[in-house]
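dumping the sequnces here before i forget
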Amino acid sequence: MKQSHHRERLLLLTSLSVFLLFLLTGCWSSQDIDKMGMGIGLALDVGNKSNVEKKLEKQGKSPPHVDTITMTYQFINPKATSKESSSAGPQQKAYLNASQTGESILPIIREFSLSHDAPLFSPHLKIIVISEALLRTHRLESLLDLFLRDNEIRPSCLVLVCNGNARHVLETKKPGELPALKLLGIVDNRSRTAKILPPVSLAKLTAKLNSESSFLLQNVAASDKEVKFEGAAVINGKTKKWAGFLNEMDLEGITWITGKGKGGLVRSLDKETGQLIIYEIETMESKITPHVDGNKISFDVHINSKGRLSENWVLNANPFENEFLKRVEKAAELEVRQLVKSVTAKMQKNLHADVAGFGERLRIEYPKTWEKVKKDWDQTFSTVPITYFVKLTMTDFGASGPSK
Amino acid sequence: MESIAPFTDDYLSNLNLIRQEIGQNADVHIREFSFGQTAIRASIIFVDGLSDRDLIDNTILKTLMNDSVAVMVQENSSGDVSGSKEFFINHVLSIHEILECRDVYDLRTKVLTGFTALLIEGAANALLLNTVKVKTRNIDEPVSESLVRGPRVGFTETLSENTALLRRHGENGDLLFLKFQVGERAKKELIIAYMKEIANPALVEEVKNRITKIKIDHVPESGYVEQFIEDNYLSPFPQVQSTERPDRVISALLEGRVAILLDGTPFALIVPVTFSMLLQSPEDYYERWIPSTFIRLLRFFTAFASLLIPALYISFISFHQGLIPTELAISIIGTRQGVPFPALLEALIMEVSIEIMREAGLRLPKPIGPAIGIVGGLIIGQAAVQAGIVSPIMVIVVAVTAISSFAIPSYNLGISLRLIRFLVMFSAAMFGLYGVILFFLLLTSHLVKLKSFGVPYVTPAVPYRLSDWKDFMVRMPLMMMKRRPKMLHTKEPTRKG
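..and the predicted 3d for all of it:
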């Protein structure tokens, strides 16, 4: 009896002390969400110290940092998002942008810890914007190395290029708006326009960086705290640096060649009257067929699209007549052919870069040939003949008949 | 034990004995009289309130004090009254139950339960006449288990009424009631009910065994029985189902389970019980199978929700902020601005206050009850948020958790899940999602090990029995449930018809 009592007490003591061990760890690595600086956007620019930074450096008497990169982090402004504060006083910005200058990415991020109370927290980072100027001197690979390596940053984070100051992209005039999320929303508009590239996330970028071929990144322009998606930046496959710019029209051409558009318009002029006709894309597909004949490589591109007559300025036109519809189709086809031709010329003559995925098709269908040419593909591509076959079909002309 | 004091032939000494034993009780009445006009003295002893006064006045006293009876008695017994006992029992007293008793202790216990003792001059034994008058209340709809569709009948506090309610389920000779007595000092009647042809004899034997092992002064409620017969008294989960509904008991009996009814309580016990039973309602079977299945799945969800939601909130807020969708994370950051407490403390404050509110609402008299709603809703909900003590999201979390726990049909399971919820919250605060999962694993391993009268608690999930899944999380059409649950090892595996 006494012994069992003793054993019971021992058991109780043991279990109690084991339980206390758990308490000893406390709330290990627990950190409340509101005590963190949640970064949602990031911009990389050529090093340019802000006035505050310069003054602080002077006061601190520390040796001057190497300052080749300026990073701008966009944080959530918790005060603005909370309900109570928005009702009283002037509306605050929903975000806080903080810039820091340094030599490479992580040292700059750590520098934030010297001036911000909330630890930087990046799983919600949505957008990385890199300025064109920085990409001219720095390899994209090196700039993004930390983000690809670190597991706190999601591989779904998108990468954009800005042809001006990247930090201006992360600004907005509208109170309550988060620029980083706004950019993310614009990417989703691909069903409305063919002038937006398929989004390039860090995950996709890894593959592109590892292949030797050139690729495109969506370009975004910023002015007066407004942003607009404009064209695309060409990244050279070898140097991984900025190699050129494609404007909106070129981008549309690329979209037609790749067939990856989800929507958009074709503006064309009626042959007879010279009036505007707008063709709205419903579906779009393209097939790039490589042909190899000895050393000669050529490509056929078949582009098919279905769409509707959305806007018609032609007088006395009768959309009920097939003849008129055929005329419209022809006009639109001509327009598309011009788009793809012009971008092809640009790719082959000016940029010497295949950014429309021709090499990829060749690799899949003629792997042996690809092995031979892949080393110098961008150069080879510049001389390859490409034939386009464009077929647009008008399936719908809306609710209006002949205009009288 | 007191020494036995048997009655003697002497009427007066017997009467004195009784007087000494129970006469000082205020509610014990001793009425002395004579048979008709004869000199044979007699007295009746009864307890006011327990015995039926009408019956005593109009049947017992009227008959005995009648001349004709006295004459008959004298003729019949030819002077020897002691021999006339048979005559009294057989010809005079129109009472359905008459016992003889030889000593005063026997008499005492019986009289104090409502019997009337009849002591006749010249007779050594007293007669005990069953004049027990049971005050019953009306049969009401069960308070704790109301249904939209189903009989509006609940058990009452009277055992005989309750067994009658069970008998009334249909003509069924199978239904067997075994009578037991529990309580060492204050004995109470207890009945084990089962279907003779269906229930597994080993199970019935086990129930009898555990009932006879109950050693306690007094059993005021079936909750006492439950705590004595349950398999694991350290487990937070109820291992016996208690119900107020006769229809629920009958369907359990027809499945091969055993029911235990105790006098003085409307709560019957059903054993063995499985976890899924506690999430079921008789209505599942009364409604069509598609809505019933949906509602059952919903209840499983509410069980998980009431257990895990605050813990998940804590772990997402303090450990895995990256797992929250960005827009939600932004609004949570906003709403938590100025909240001075870590997520655990915030959750504890709210959870504890809602538990207090629930408890207070339960005890309050009905007219004041709604006040709790106002105080709770306004003060705790609105004011706490405005004062910046908790965030509005936390209020939502607590509210969802609370209504989830109220959606669990079994009250006692709801309580246990609420209790365990606090433990999960602590382990979430210590280790985040990892802690929640760890705790859940521990809990599951306990559940898997737990048994109720030999039946594993989480059957048919573990041990896996596909045929019993027809009546587990889903409720298949009745036509498809031809067989009784296999887990019960019934004598008759198939249902008739």
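Residues 159-273 of chain B form one domain.
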